[in-house]
Inverse folding.
């Protein structure tokens, strides 16, 4: 009986050691593996977030769609030159977006900041703008709305996507004179 107990006990020890070895070797498999772009190593293999692929998550995936959900333009200097202000009502600011060389505005914001003393404008109401042609240049304009028509106060252009831009949640760019553009983006894969 004693020897049987001893046998079971040593069998348990063997199993315990085997489990430990398996666990340690599984851990060790990740020892020299570095996953990029917030990928996580599991048993020696990088598990990537949905935005990246390949063995080490270093390759950016092409999104099926990109949507702008919020646009902010800040540090705009309005008072140097005001020929856009047809009726002297100061900036009554709306956002316009154009695709590439389009002559027409593809989007005009719901929000308008009337007679605004601000130098920072954020537009997000009903803004679900599809970046249909991902490599297109987009033109963002601040428009002054007076008597039923728009005059452009400021414009800037941006390419929101290229195949190695890291797919940021917020695209940010600073232009000459310190004007800053921020565009919040959603991706689908
Ligand atoms: Ca005005």
């Amino acid at each position: 009986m004693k020897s049987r107990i001893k046998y079971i006990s040593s069998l348990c020890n063997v199993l315990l050691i085997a489990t430990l070895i398996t666990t340690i070797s599984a851990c060790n498999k990740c020892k020299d593996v570095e996953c990029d772009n917030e990928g996580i190593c599991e048993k020696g293999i990088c598990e990537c977030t949905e935005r990246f692929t390949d063995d080490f998550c270093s390759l950016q995936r092409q999104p099926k769609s990109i949507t702008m959900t919020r646009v902010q333009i800040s540090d705009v200097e309005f008072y140097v030159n005001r020929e856009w202000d047809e009726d002297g009502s100061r900036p009554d600011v709306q956002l316009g977006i154009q695709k590439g060389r389009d002559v027409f505005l593809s989007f005009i914001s719901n929000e308008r900041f009337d007679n605004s003393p601000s130098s920072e404008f954020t537009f997000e109401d009903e803004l679900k703008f599809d970046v249909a042609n991902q490599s297109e240049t987009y033109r963002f304009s601040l428009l002054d709305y007076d008597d039923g028509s728009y005059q452009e106060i400021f414009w800037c252009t941006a390419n929101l996507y290229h195949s190695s831009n890291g797919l940021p949640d917020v695209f940010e760019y600073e232009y000459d004179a310190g004007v800053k553009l921020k565009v919040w983006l959603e991706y689908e894969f």
User: Anything to note?
Assistant: The first helix runs from residue 2 to 29. The first strand starts at residue 40 and ends at 42. The domain at 65-188 is CATH 2.60.40.150 (Immunoglobulin-like).
